Amino acid sequence: MKMPGRPEKKNITNIFNRRFINFLLRSSVAILESDASRTEKIIKKLLLQAGALCKTGSLSLFSLQEGSGKISILASSSARAGRIKQEYSTSSVSAACRYLRNGLPALFFPPLKNNQVLHYFRLNPHAVSSLGVPVMQGKKPAAFLLAEFYIKSWDTQAPGISFYSSLAKILFAACKKKKEHQNLERERFLVDTIMKHQLDRVYIKDSRARFIKVNKALLDYHHLKSPEESTGKTDYDLFTREHADQAWQEDKKIIKTGKPCINLVEKETLPGGETRWSSTTKVPLRSKSGKIIGLFGMSRDITELVHTREIIETERNLLRTMIDNIPDCIYVKDRESRYLLNNRAHLELLGCSRQKEVCGKNDFAFFPHAYAGEFFSGEQKILKSGRPSLNHVSLVLNKEKKQIYMLTSKIPLYDKDKKISGIIGISRNITDQINTENELKKSYEKLKKNINSIIYTMAHIVEVRDPYTAGHQQRVAELSMAIAKKMNLEQEKIYYIQLAAAVHDIGKIHIPAEILSRPGDISDIEYSLIKSHTELGYEILANIDFGYPIARIVLQHHEKMNGSGYPHGLKGESIMTEARIIAVADVVEAMANHRPYRPSLGLKLALREIKDNSGTLFDPAVVNACLMLFRKDHFNFS
Ligand SMILES: [Fe+2]
To answer: pLDDT value at position 53?
Structure first.
């Protein structure tokens, strides 16, 4: 359009400027209004349109990272831009920076001194000159637009400079928008991936606790088919009112106060009536300005864990109830003999009422040093050897400082790696039992003494009725005991041999006194009657429980090794050792001592008698012992 009064050239410039300004305005609006996802296309279109508008060879926008010494292409109309190296060398950058540092555009002309620079930046092989226009951020250049031309010169005063500067700013803003969009897309992808593969329920709610975004785990939990089914819903749509009320109160609190709730254990009841447990963490969601616009939540299903805990708790209670109601003391100690667990009975023994009064302490805190030291060393042995100590009776002081007897078993306690981690002890107070046993022992001893007294009294009666054998049984008892000792028989056997010998002729109580006391020859019938004293003695004694076969010894005291004795003609080993001893002692005593009806036959003759009949009538072992007693030990009847 021709303007009156103005030169033609100026009009062209104005028109030219106007076209540029129009283009820049349209470009700015396009960028501002563009959907972020379409920014890439708009940048491409801008580059092509601008190139066509001012007949430029190519237009390229470089980002300039002065600190890192690198530049890279942000956008370019050149077809080569995608193929050539994206990053340029340090020398190119420093050269570019040298030109652009002061924020002024720079012209690059070959063959200027810095033709290297042109060489590196040239994207269009047919371009012969180029113009670099910086985009300043504060005082530093952040990017520059490189325009390449087919002509060898460019007027730096031309109105085009301001056009390129403005175009560079618009392009840079568009590239930033594109970058932001890409970052956002990447972040969204990451969040989506995390949410998709997260086994916990993840969700975002708005300020009125309505679901905005949920993950697959949450959809599955509530049997929802797609995220759209959850959008806009609240906990009231997914849970029973009871739980939804509770969740709403919590959500309101977080949104109001901004305080997160961490690992809150919640009991959730689903509309179908199923009850589940969750551990929930919710944090407030804020806008860029810091205003709370909702919340981010994560809920982990811990139903199995809660059930397992309940089972463990039930078992623990059961075990505790059991051990607390057992009268025996039960306790668990660690490797340093410190108490970990004690049942009620043991706490009472230690004078305590609660577990925490005992935990971590050892026996030195409860017993005198000597007792505790003994317990400790015993336990250390078990821990070292792995061998239990069973039914050990120990003396302990109770809380009243009274000595009590405890029957204790301690066994090693193994951990899951099969290593000994401590000991389990079980102790029973057996003081009453031991006292009762001692009482019984005393009673038994008393009873035994009484029975013995009765027996000896009966034996004495026999001897009173038969003055010819007065003191005989007592002396036979004395010798029998000495022989038994010589033969190294057991203590108990020796005791009962003496007892049996002291009453061996008790059966004579039934023989008429006139037969027993008559001196001189007796008839066969009378002799048979006298012989019956062994069986009569057996009958008397068989009814008394000596805890030892006294009656049988008495029955056999006239049996002989060759079977020639009475009453049953037993032979050798079938005769009890005790009876064989009394048989020898009986003969030696009878022959060696005086009788009212005859003088003593002499010890010598008595010993010869048993020696001559050793093996035939008498047990050789008994005979040997008897001979040694008299010949070596100089035994004398008292
Ligand atoms: Fe006899």
So the answer is: 78
Could you tell me the pLDDT band of residue 114, with boundaries at 50, 70 and 90?
Answer: very low
Give 440's Cβ-side CA count (13 Å radius): 6
Separation of 505 CA from ligand 1 center, angstroms? 5
Preceding peptide of 567 cis, ω within 30°: yes
Question: What separation in Å is there between the alpha carbon of 354 and the centre of ligand 1?
Answer: 73
Average pLDDT over every residue of 481-496: 94
Residues 163, 165: Cα–Cα separation, whole Å: 5
Whole-number average pLDDT of the chain: 84
The confidence score (pLDDT) of residue 43 equals 87
pLDDT at 308 over 80: yes
Rounded to the nearest angstrom, the distance between the alpha carbon of 443 and the centre of ligand 1 is 32
Strands 329-334 and 420-429: antiparallel
Q: How far, in Å, from the CA of 438 to the mean position of ligand 1? A: 38
Is residue 125 over pLDDT 80? Answer: no
- Pairwise CA distance, residues 406 & 428, whole Å: 5
| 558 alpha carbon – ligand 1 mean position (Å) | 6
Dihedral over alpha carbons 20, 23, 25, 30 (to 10 degrees): -160
Tokens of 543: 């009814």
How many alpha carbons fall within 13 Å on the CB side of residue 179? 10
Query: What domains can be seen in the chain, in order of their start residue?
Result: 8-183 (3.30.450.40), 198-306 (3.30.450.20), 326-429 (3.30.450.20), 442-631 (1.10.3210.10)
Helix, strand or coil, per DSSP, at residue 53:
helix
- Give the confidence band of 83 by pLDDT, cuts at 50, 70, 90: low
* pLDDT reported for residue 103: 63
**% of the chain exceeding 90 in pLDDT:** 46
Distance from chain centroid for Cα 320:
18
Tokens 């000991």, located at residue: 423
Residue 567 CA to ligand 1 center (angstroms) comes to 11
Q: Specify the DSSP element, H or E, that contains 342.
A: strand 339-342
Give the closest residue to 396 by CA, choosing from 359, 358, 434, 451.
434
- State the number of CA atoms in the 13 A half-sphere of 536 facing the CB: 15
Per-residue pLDDT tens digits for 214-241: 999 999 999 999 989 999 999 999 988 8
Whether 158 has a pLDDT exceeding 90, the answer reads no
Distance 619 CA to ligand 1 centre (A): 17
How buried is residue 483: exposed, middle or buried, by Cβ count under 10 Å (0-12/13-18/19+)? Answer: buried
Q: How would you write 276-331 as a 3-class SS string?
A: EEEEEEEEEEECCCCCEEEEEEEEEECHHHHHHHHHHHHHHHHHHHHHHCCCCEEE
Sign of the alpha-carbon torsion through 214, 220, 224, 226: positive
Distance 448 CA to ligand 1 centre (A): 24
Distance 201 CA to ligand 1 centre (A): 104
Confidence band (pLDDT; 50, 70, 90) for 55?
confident
Q: How far is CA 577 from the centre of its chain?
A: 63
Which tokens belong to 96?
A: 């570019």
Tokens 């056999």: give the residue. 556
Q: Please state, in angstroms and as integers, the Cα–Cα distance from residue 583 to each residue in 7, 186, 458, 477, 588, following that order.
A: 171, 116, 21, 11, 9
Report how far ligand 1's centroid is from the alpha carbon of 587 (Å). 9
State yes or no: pLDDT of 89 exceeds 80: no
